[in-house]
Amino acid sequence: MAMNTVVKTLSKVLLLTLPLLFLSVVVRAESTKPTEHPGQVVSLIGEWHAIKIENLRWNDTGWSEDSVELRIKIIEQHGAVFRGTVSYDAPDASPGHDGEKLGTKRTVDILGVFDWDGQHFTIVSKAKDAFTLQGTMLNPHSFEIIGYEAGLHSWVTRDLYIRK
């Protein structure tokens, strides 16, 4: 008799927990799907200027907003992907390096893409001395950048850009 009661109790528990187990598997599967609707992205079309620059370069010098003008110009954007240029003008600073020679002015073609969240983006250069910039939108009119170039003429930077 006692065995029959145990079997009935286990059957009831199993019948009650199976639907919950199934539901938890379905919910878990849904939560691991990639986002079907990516976050809204801001239009970056236009010109952006760095108003704060913290930079360290291969020759132990750095650039600041007082010694160099940094600009990002986005000329084309299709949803999350965009293209444009990055420029610097450093007449009063130690020169930059383009992979071949030193110089105080330069413009480089870039490609970029927003992350799925619509707030973070990556920019890569189309240059011999390839660099990468990681950006975060602060609002529709400003973003921050963390950037780097590895190698012989390496540098790291952290900049704040506003729309002009």
Report on the structure:
The chain is α+β, with helices and mostly antiparallel strands and 164 residues long. The protein has two domains: 33 residues; 118 residues, Quinohemoprotein amine dehydrogenase alpha subunit, domain 2 (Lipocalin), CATH 2.40.128.120. It contains one helix and ten strands, in the order αββββββββββ. About 7% of the residues have low confidence. This is Lipocalin-like domain-containing protein. Keywords: Signal. It comes from Pseudovibrio axinellae.
Task: Describe the secondary structure blueprint for this structure.
Layout: H1 2-31, E1 46-57, E2 69-78, E3 81-89, E4 96-97, E5 102-103, E6 105-114, E7 120-125, E8 132-139, E9 142-149, E10 155-163
Antiparallel strand pairs: 1-2, 1-10, 2-3, 3-6, 4-5, 6-7, 7-8, 8-9, 9-10
Keywords: Signal
Protein name: Lipocalin-like domain-containing protein
Signal peptide: 1-29
